[in-house]
Design brief:
CATH topology of the largest domain: Rossmann fold
Number of strands: 9
Number of domains: 2
Protein name: Ribosomal RNA small subunit methyltransferase A
Distance between the termini: 63 Å
Keywords: Cytoplasm, Methyltransferase, RNA-binding, rRNA processing, S-adenosyl-L-methionine, Transferase
Bound molecules: S-adenosylmethionine
GO molecular function: 16S rRNA (adenine(1518)-N(6)/adenine(1519)-N(6))-dimethyltransferase activity; RNA binding
Oligomer: single chain
Strand content: 15-25%
Helix content: 40-55%
Catalytic activity: adenosine(1518)/adenosine(1519) in 16S rRNA + 4 S-adenosyl-L-methionine = N(6)-dimethyladenosine(1518)/N(6)-dimethyladenosine(1519) in 16S rRNA + 4 S-adenosyl-L-homocysteine + 4 H(+)
Function: Specifically dimethylates two adjacent adenosines (A1518 and A1519) in the loop of a conserved hairpin near the 3'-end of 16S rRNA in the 30S particle. May play a critical role in biogenesis of 30S subunits.
Radius of gyration: 21 Å
Number of helices: 12
CATH superfamily of the largest domain: Vaccinia Virus protein VP39
CATH architecture of the largest domain: 3-Layer(aba) Sandwich
Strand order of the largest sheet: 4-3-2-5-6-9-7
Shape: elongated
């Protein structure tokens, strides 16, 4: 089977199987060899690695992954793609295709079975409609992960990488940056896909931290405070927290907690760094 990462070979496979794209699954297949090579390079794959690929499509990136990794596990929701993958990946004996919804798969069990529980690498051209649940699910469920290299909507990649005070900075930036170091690898125009999406895309690399980079006593409380702060962007941090039930504190206690952080009492949430949110949650947790 020839490599698929170009329009001619992709069309040939699609026609052979009379494949119809399903919009509800976010199907936009990569047809650019240069971008495929950039993804593989930036993922830093070695022959020791187990790779989890989410949504292999017709197997375009899977072929590259099979050549550079020890074992590839590819999870694809669309049953119509399974016979195609059997064909396009027939030359590789180090790939297992699972026909399921990634949000329902026990990834811990896969890492245990195929990688002795050691950290795995996730590489994917993600279905954009479930980008955030997939990424947060991977981080929060304590799956052993070394890195996540993914194609996402450009706007989402910008939000993941944004720093305090920037317009894209928000709850997603803080969640991603709590668990990992994000770095945009390359921006990808719609012309690199078939069919072309309406939005621009970016490949982003998220290198998981081995140890937390901030000192937080109650992770859940910190994320509750973060959500409350960005829920009403135009409001001050104090008003945001009060309108969200005050985290169990009175208005005065909230003000005192913000002052104890050493920032003006009328500060907006978008000005606080991850370290400051961590510190604020420790102060609020102790005052409760
Ligand atoms: N990796 C291929 C490529 O780069 O050409 C396809 C990428 S396409 C953007 C996203 C793929 O994810 C599609 O094949 C789609 O069917 C699949 N998909 C969508 N939702 C999924 C889910 N919940 N679980 C697993 N796969 C899913």
């Amino acid at each position: 089977m020839a490599y698929l990462g170009n329009p001619k070979n992709t069309i040939e496979v699609l026609q052979k199987y009379n494949f119809n794209f399903q919009k509800k699954f976010g199907q936009n297949f990569l047809i650019d060899t240069g971008i495929l090579e950039e993804i593989i390079d930036s993922a830093g794959i070695t022959k020791d690695d187990m790779i989890l690929e989410i949504g292999p499509g017709i197997g375009t990136m899977t072929q590259y992954l099979c050549e550079s990794a020890r074992q590839v596990i590819a999870v694809e929701i669309d049953t119509n793609l399974i016979p195609i993958l059997k064909d396009t990946l027939s030359e590789y004996d180090n790939v297992k295709v699972i026909n399921d919804d990634i949000l329902k798969v026990d990834i811990n069990a896969l890492a245990e079975e195929y990688n002795n529980g050691k950290p795995i690498k996730v590489v994917a051209n993600l279905p954009y409609y479930i980008t955030t649940p997939i990424i947060m699910g991977l981080f929060e469920s304590h799956v052993p992960i070394d890195s996540i290299t993914i194609m996402v909507q450009k706007e989402v990649a910008d939000r993941m990488q944004a720093a305090p005070g920037k317009k894209d900075y928000g709850a997603l930036s803080l969640a991603v940056q709590y668990y990992s170091h994000p770095e945009i690898v390359v921006n990808v125009p719609p012309s690199c896909f078939m069919p072309q999406p309406k939005v621009g895309s970016s490949v982003i690399s998220l290198k998981r931290y081995e140890k937390p980079v901030v000192d937080v006593e109650d992770e859940k409380l910190m994320f509750k405070i973060i959500r409350a702060s960005f829920n009403q962007r135009r409001k001050t941090l104090a008003n945001g927290l009060n309108n969200f039930g005050g985290m169990g504190l009175t208005k005065e206690q909230i003000q005192q907690s913000i002052e104890a952080l050493g920032v003006p009492v009328n500060v907006r949430g978008e000005a606080l760094s991850l370290a400051q949110f961590a510190q604020l949650s420790n102060i609020i947790g102790a005052a409760k």
